[in-house]
Amino acid sequence: MSKKQIDGVFDDIVEFAGIGDFIDSPVKIYSSGMYVRLGFSVAIHVDPEILIIDEVIAVGDEEFQRKCFDHLADLRRRGVTIVVVTHGMATVETMCDGAAWLDHGVLQQEGTAADIASAYLRRVNEHERAERQAEAVAAAEAATELTTMPEVTPEAVGEEWFGEDIEISEVWFSDSAGETVATGTTGEPLTVNISYRAHRLVEDPVFGFMIHTENDTPVAGSNTRLSGIETGKIEGDGVMAIKMEQLQLLPGNYEFTIGINDKFVQHTYDRHYRSHPLAVRRGTLPIGVGFVELDATWLAGGGSDHTPESS
User: Fold this and answer.
1) Are 197 and 166 in contact (CB under 8 A)?
2) How far apart are the first and last CA of the chain?
3) What's the farthest any 2 CA atoms get from each other in the chain?
4) What residues does the Wzt C-terminal domain cover (predicted)?
5) pTM of the model as a whole
6) How far apart are the C-alpha atoms of 287 and 293, rounded to whole Å?
7) Gap between the Cα atoms of 90 and 96, Å rounded
């Protein structure tokens, strides 16, 4: 840029970078964030034909990031080619038309942004699932080597019931193929399996579950009674399953509580409180924010005959 060009956009560069109070200070005292914001501001104000961005959008507060996205959208409308180097799938899907997936410098796949983001997430999910299954196998093998097991007392687990009539034997998660899994994927099938043993004949016990985040925030819960299901007379060993055709939990770490109550939900036979963790990962579909993906449908024009009032 010539000096005349710099002078013409100097004030815009300083204002965009948000460093007006420090513009007369030596650059060497700038923080790393200030330095990168200044460099980004210079780059977008030189009227580029091609702009290469390397994770710069992650720098700065919410206000600066919004300015970056707004300005980049304006550059796209003007026909500027923007090349983004990023690890953020949200950036790929919202900013990019096409994408190339590199792993240690080796091209893995090239295509539309949505397809590449989905392929990458599938690979990550597969690797994590394999690692967790390997850890579970190693833990099981280590457990079989123990010659003595410590006695579990009510005080140790904070519960006062231990299944005198019905006890929960085991709880595990499985996918659509029936394979045991340690992770779930938003939008894909998941089943929660509850293995139980009834020591005597029990009529219509109520099976229930509750989901918390790892920070103790309740997310959802239900039971067979609320679902209108009568479990009938139960005796001996059996399995009760909670089948979800599409897991609606959004990505995050959750803990399941599983319980069995009498048919009036007044007496607890057995309960595993927040004892069954489930890591939920993103699948191939776009997701919203929060804890759950609501099963809702958008209707153009609204779903009723309501007519907005004129102003």
Assistant:
1) yes
2) 51
3) 91
4) 164-293
5) 0.57
6) 7
7) 10
Range of the domain at 94: 3-114
Percent composition of the chain: helix, strand, coil (DSSP 3-state, to 5): 30, 35, 35
Do 209 and 151 form a contact (C-beta atoms < 8 A)?
Answer: no
Token pair, residue 208, equals: 């229930």
Q: Supply the CATH number for residue 165's domain.
A: 2.70.50.60
Lowest-confidence region among 121-135, 163-177, 199-213, 262-276? 121-135
Asked if residues 257 and 275 have their Cβ atoms less than 8 Å apart, the reply is: yes
Please work out, in degrees rounded to the nearest 5, the angle formed at the alpha carbon of residue 99 by the alpha carbons of 93 and 102. Answer: 120
The continuous run of DSSP H or E covering 301 comes out as none
Task: Please tell me whether residues 276 and 175 are part of one structural domain.
Answer: yes
Is the pLDDT at 208 greater than 80? The verdict is yes
Q: What is the CATH number of the domain that holds 42?
A: 3.40.50.300
Please write the tens of the pLDDT for every residue from 258-280.
999 888 888 888 888 888 999 99
